[in-house]
Amino acid sequence: MSYAEATIKDRNPIKRLLQRRRFRDALSCIDEGLSPEIVIDFGGGTGELSKRLEARFPEARIICYEPSPWMTKEAEENLAGQKRIAFVASLDQIPKGKADLLYCNEVFEHFPPAQVENAINRIKALLSDDGVAVIGVPIEVFIPALLKGAFRMTRRYGAYDASWSTVLRAALGVPPKDRPLDELGPGLPWHYKHMGFDHRPFRKRLERDFAVVRTITSPIPWLGTFLNNEIYYILRNTEGVSG
Predict the structure, then answer these.
(1) Is the pTM of this model over 0.70?
(2) Is beta strand 230-237 parallel, antiparallel or unpaired with respect to 188-190?
């Protein structure tokens, strides 16, 4: 199964809707008046967000960074013919300190701690002093965890993220710590399951290196984290924040 078939082309119409909605909500995090010259899609997956960024910012250079070999093929096919999108598989191909805008969606929840630290440091280095980063992660605790767990049980009952023990722990706000660890590719450790990720300590980690300008939840912003699937952190480099 391709990544697209598990997300925006999923057989469940509600999941398809929510997956497509998150792209729209991610773009809504940025003010209409912003005119970036360089935009990075960090961990761009199939390149779907990059295509939307190209349409949103017609004067910008869009860089889609995706290191996974099997994702690379999907992204290259999806981005074929997109002349303003540069596809790269290594961060060494991207100039440091030049990004006016950086998106990183549905990535950090898959990283073990060492990769979280590395990615945060790399993102910080890529952003210009006045650059903005939008980082989106899923909400996997309390009621959202219960609802997601119930849905997963209908598909793979008894799996790590679809058993009553793990779902109830996450629903009580104490998600399990023994997350299964695999690889997305050679040298790319990866938690395939969202279960066990907790956005609350993740935010605290972001605050050590960035100023959190605001947060937005999706798909119903006014509900906050109570009944939403996703949370977006709009960040600035602390070096670029005064006062």
Answers:
(1) yes
(2) unpaired
